[in-house]
Amino acid sequence: MPKARRTKDLHTPEAPRTESGGPSMLIVEPGSLDGKTIIDAIPEPGPGSAHSALAVLGEASVPTEVGLTARVASATFERDGYKHLIKAAEAVYSYPANGARLSLPAQKMLNFMIHLAGSQNFANRLYRLPKRVVRGNHKGNERIFDALKEIFDSSLVVIGPFRGRRSRAELRILSSYVRPEEEDDTDAADIHFQFTDAFLEIQRTSQLWAKLSGPAMVKVTSTYALKLYEIGMQRYQMDYPSLELDIDTLRKLLNVPDGAYKDFGILRTRTIDRAIAEVNHLAPFRVSMPEDKIKRRGRKIEAVTLDFAAKDEEEVVETFLERERHSAGRRARRSGTVERLAIPTTIEPGPLPDADDVNALWAAALHALKGKVPAPLLNELTPLRVEDVAHGVRRLVLQTRTAATADAAGMNHWPTIKSALSSLTMGLIADVAFEAAARRGK
Asked: Is NADP among the key words of this record (predicted)?
């Protein structure tokens, strides 16, 4: 398993330090926090529980072995940075305590913070997260530090076995964070924070995790959809991906405000159905809530079952392309209300491009694909021709030296290259194929 990087850069957490001439810092700490969890025993779980064992700090903390989640998080950060985020299953199925809510920006920021700590096997230290990772298109700092303050003020409830009984662990998330008194609006500034040891211990000893897509997560537009996306990413590749939840637990997981949408019909239309529609539009799986699996007692709905199923290849490609499109119009595309202009069928396609045009197109595509497809692979690709395929679609055929390279390009990078070509040609070339060069006889 690769070790976390030791080089000093913006991604790597560092110990606190004082720099002469820098802005003075305001350090915020909860005085009453002692790092221990609060355990409230509740009944035994039934079969198929979604929660792993709780790693709870007792009277004396002892070093624990690093679990699979920590090792996967470290390797993923080393390879992908923030492209993929690892989150322990225990954190996925947690929810804010005392009926509190975390805003959507705070939940997204917390996922980035957890993944950063995973790069260091969830060591108890001060971490440094670059603002550019969480800022997005917003250029001010107020939302960033408002979200950080939300996380600092919050506690999470984690459910799981503890000493042979299903138990409720309530724990604080952050022990401290650092906020400059003179805030800098540039991306060069960083966010400094430290998790509580109880929260880190949950992550450090976890054996189950969800692998979230950073680009997909930041495009989610509601807290309900984000939690449903996290649960789906943790379950959809399991042998038994369905999850049964009573209505009270479902409300807590989706972060529905206390007292809101008491009627199940309203809860479903305002939160569940909308979250399902958004997740199905952006995730590599489909989620459904089958009517025949809804448990009722008289007219009262007591529990529902969420089914998660992986999408087929064509659906995965369409999901990728949707994430690449601008967010404007996404809701209309999701509901199928986009107006489409009729294309006259009498227009004949133009002549196929010649060799010079193909080479020029590929040169432009190489520029567009820089940073999106590994450079060694791009260097192996040579444009051959543009050909007509079914339904008036044209595709660019690229040649590789070996069949293995062609297979790798097709399996891992076909959607990216296809999208770039379609964008460059305004949809005239909407596909790409890979051919291995013919082997010469000895």
From this structure: no
β-strand partners of 400: 436
Q: From the CB of residue 357, how many other CB atoms can be counted at a distance below 10 Å?
A: 13
Q: Which residues, other chains included, contact 26 with Cβ-Cβ below 8 Å and sequence gap of 6+?
A: 178, 179, 180, 181
Parse the chain into domains and list their residue ranges. Answer: 25-314, 358-436
Give the residue from 235, 232, 284, 275 showing the smallest Cα distance to 254.
Answer: 275
- How do strand 190-195 and strand 38-41 relate by DSSP bridges? unpaired
Neighbour count for residue 105 (Cβ, 10 Å): 18
Residue 307 bridge partners (DSSP): 288
5 SS3 class: coil
Question: Global pTM?
Answer: 0.62
Strands 127-130 and 190-195: antiparallel
Give me the half-sphere count of Cα atoms (radius 13 Å) on the Cβ side of residue 139. Answer: 1
Q: Report d(CA 70, CA 75) in Å as an integer.
A: 9
- Fold entry, domain 358-436: GMP Synthetase; Chain A, domain 3 (3.30.300)
Backbone angles phi, psi at 255, to 5 degrees: 65, 35
Q: What is each CA distance from 314 to 182, 293, 407, in whole angstroms? A: 50, 28, 17
Residue 319 has a pLDDT of 63
Express each pLDDT in 305-342 by its tens digit.
Answer: 999 998 887 777 766 665 555 555 555 555 555 555 55
pLDDT at 135: 74
